[in-house]
Structures are given as structure tokens and as C-alpha cells.
Design a protein that fits this description.
single chain; alpha/beta; 8-stranded parallel barrel; 16 helices; globular; binds iron/sulfur cluster
Length: 369
């Protein structure tokens, strides 16, 4: 399990090591033709690498074109429950927030699906809070077939489950699970996740192991940008990715870059990342790993997302609502967080095409494999 490897690393040592990387380390990492190491990755996310951002962007672009071609896959999230037994300090759905709690019925989900299908999507991301009683495995088993009958690729972002729970959902056609560690800094994890099951750092950390053992098609990992030093978080994400690829080699992987956005409770990010640094991070992941999918959501601004299309991103969301029932049945319910890019899927699609890229609505695993 990843825990055994994770426990051999020390956050402060890794951080110091990253901050001490030099231009020579960056140049060495950039010039390699064989697979890059974790030491190379440290150099690529180090402060020293910011002076190489143009070269990194070019290399990231070339590697992405080589592996993925000129394709950007579109997806849309649908929130089906805001029930949550956790109290993450940065989230509008925290159980501490006095909001109207909603878990969509099958009938309401069908209405949401009908609205979303009008937009042309074939890849949907089903999102819930984390509440085993109100939206647990039995609920997922009821609603997953509704999505599977209308979408070629169904991803879910739900509470961590046991392996058997995942196996039941995979049998019903589940393709992907997104599970973010939020922060890999064990010492501060509880400050942000003080109560509920999510306060168990290791149970969350080992979720991708349970998914790998369940033979899932794809796992999305990442950290929440804004809680701790992003460079060190990125190192641990790459360490995790390396481990997963080695141990569950049949599974595909994606990385997302959720940057903290305003939400009910008004939590302020502890650390900030500039747009330039976020580009550095995206390029570093691509240069480190040519096969991983890189996904960017509507948390980011219009201009910034437009510029990222050619830099290494493979998946992009559009037209997103972050409230349960947001597309049709409860348009005014509380959002998990404010999105930034509010353009329609059609507009985003046009922008992708203008940059010479193909918009992929269907899952490309099925289209190209
Ligand atoms: S981030 Fe997820 S687990 Fe935490 S309070 Fe929000 S919905 Fe619940």
C-alpha cells in the first residue's frame, strides 16, 4: 500500500530539497530523453525552473501532441447531493454550514440528464458530498445506470469507499473515480479536515490502492491548491502517481489542478500560486509523465484556460454548475464553490477549434484504442 512508501518521506526535507534545486538541475531534467525521475520532477517545480517556463511550455506541448494528438476531451460535472458528514473548512457543503440539503431523486436526476444531453456531452462527472447514509453505495447503485444509459464515460467524485463498494459500481459500468488527497502534509491535514471520516488521512491516502485492486479503468488524483506549499504537494502527487502506475498498470491516470475558489464560509487560501506558476506545474507534470491525462476545470478564468489548451491539458470542463439540481430542478441551490469561466460548452468548443484542436465529446479511450 502507498502508506508504506509515503511514510519513508519527510515533508520538510522534500521541501528544502526542491527549493535548493539549481538551473543546472533544471537543464539536466529538461534535456533527458529517457523517462524523468522524481529528482527531475523536483527540479521542474522548483523556483529555479520559472526562468525556463518558455522551454518547459514548448516541451510540454510537444510531448502532449506526440501522445494525445490535437484532441481536447470535454466533460461536465453534475452535482447530485450536497449531504456531507465532514467539515472541510474550505467547502460550502461542510456540515457546519446551515444550508438546505438536497439529494436528487431518480426522477430529478433524469431531468438533469435531459438538460445536460442538450449540450452535447458524452462524458459526465457525477459529484456528491460525503455521506454514506444519504448518498452511499446503495444510492449510487440506483443512480449509476441512469447515467450509463446516456453517457459513454461516467466519472464519479464521491466519498472514499471500500474495495467491494467500488467493485459493485464498476460492474455497473463506472469508468473513473476522482479522489484528491487535498493536502499530502499529514501534520496539517486535520486542521482542514477536523471531523467526519475525511479526518482519517490514511484512509483517504489509500483510496487509490483500493480502486486499483478493484480494477477500475481510470483514477484521477491531485491536491487542493491553496492549503500548503504547492511544490511539495506536487512532488507527493507524482510520487503517488509513480507508485500507482507501477502497481496497477492496467489503470489509466489523470491529474487535476483544483485551485481554491470562494465558497460559503469564506476560507482564504493559505498559500497562493500565480498563473505563471500554475503553468509551470502543468508543464512539469507533462514533462515528468507523458501518459497522464491533465484536466482543467471552470475554476480557472477564461483567458487562462484558453492559453492552457496548447500547453499539455487533455481534458476540460464547460458549462459547469456546482450545485445539486443546478441544470434544471434546483437552479438556485447553494454552489459548492463559485466557478470562474461561465462560458457555454459551445463557446469553449469554438475556442478549442480556433486553436486548431479537435473537440472530443466521446471518451477517447473508446474512440482511439
Ligand atoms: S470538500 Fe467534500 S467532504 Fe469536504 S465538506 Fe465539502 S463536500 Fe464534504
Amino acid at each position: 500500500m502507498f502508506k508504506e512508501i509515503f511514510d519513508t518521506y519527510n515533508w520538510e526535507e522534500i521541501k528544502q530539497n526542491i527549493y535548493s534545486k539549481t538551473s543546472a538541475d533544471v537543464e539536466s531534467a529538461m534535456s533527458k530523453t529517457q523517462r524523468r525521475t522524481l529528482e527531475d520532477f523536483k527540479a521542474l517545480v522548483s523556483p529555479a525552473a520559472i526562468d525556463y517556463i518558455e522551454q518547459m511550455a514548448q516541451l510540454s506541448r510537444d510531448l502532449t501532441l506526440k501522445r494525445f494528438g490535437k484532441n481536447i476531451q470535454m466533460y461536465i460535472p453534475v452535482y447530485i447531493s450536497n449531504e456531507c458528514h465532514n467539515s472541510c473548512v474550505y467547502c460550502g457543503f461542510s456540515k457546519k454550514n446551515n444550508i438546505k440539503r438536497i439529494t436528487l431523486t431518480e426522477e430529478q436526476i433524469l431531468k438533469e440528464i435531459k438538460e445536460i444531453k442538450k449540450l452535447g456531452f458524452e462524458h459526465i462527472l457525477v459529484v456528491t458530498g460525503e455521506n454514506d447514509l444519504k448518498a452511499g453505495v446503495e444510492y449510487f447503485k440506483k443512480v449509476l445506470p441512469l447515467f450509463k444509459s446516456e453517457f459513454t464515460h461516467v466519472s464519479m467524485e464521491i466519498q472514499p469507499l471500500m474495495q467491494s463498494g467500488y467493485e459493485q459500481l464498476i460492474q455497473l459500468g463506472l469508468n473513473t473515480i476522482l479522489i484528491y488527497q487535498e493536502t499530502y502534509n499529514k501534520n496539517f491535514y486535520k486542521n482542514f479536515h477536523p471531523a467526519g471520516k475525511k479526518s482519517d488521512f490514511y484512509f483517504r491516502l489509500e483510496t487509490p490502492d483500493r480502486l486499483g485492486k478493484a480494477n477500475i479503468n481510470k483514477i484521477g488524483i491531485g491536491f487542493l491548491i491553496g492549503l500548503d506549499d504547492w511544490r511539495t504537494e506536487a512532488f507527493y502527487t507524482s510520487l503517488h502517481l509513480n507508485y500507482l502506475e507501477k502497481n496497477y498498470w492496467k489503470t489509466k491516470y489523470s491529474i487535476s489542478f483544483p485551485r481554491l475558489r470562494p465558497a460559503a464560509g469564506e476560507f482564504e487560501p493559505i498559500v497562493n500560486i500565480t498563473d505563471k506558476e500554475l503553468v509551470q506545474l502543468i508543464c512539469a507534470y507533462r514533462i515528468f509523465n507523458e501518459n497522464v491525462e491533465l484536466s482543467i476545470s471552470t475554476r480557472e478564468s477564461e483567458k487562462f484556460r484558453d492559453n492552457l489548451i496548447k500547453l499539455g491539458i487533455t481534458n476540460i470542463s464547460a458549462g459547469s454548475k456546482t450545485n445539486p439540481g443546478g441544470y434544471s430542478v434546483f437552479k438556485e441551490s447553494l454552489k459548492q464553490f463559485e466557478i470562474h469561466d461561465k462560458r457555454s460548452p459551445e463557446e469553449i468548443s469554438e475556442i478549442i477549434k480556433q486553436q486548431g484542436y479537435e473537440v472530443v465529446w466521446k471518451d477517447w479511450d473508446k474512440t482511439y484504442n
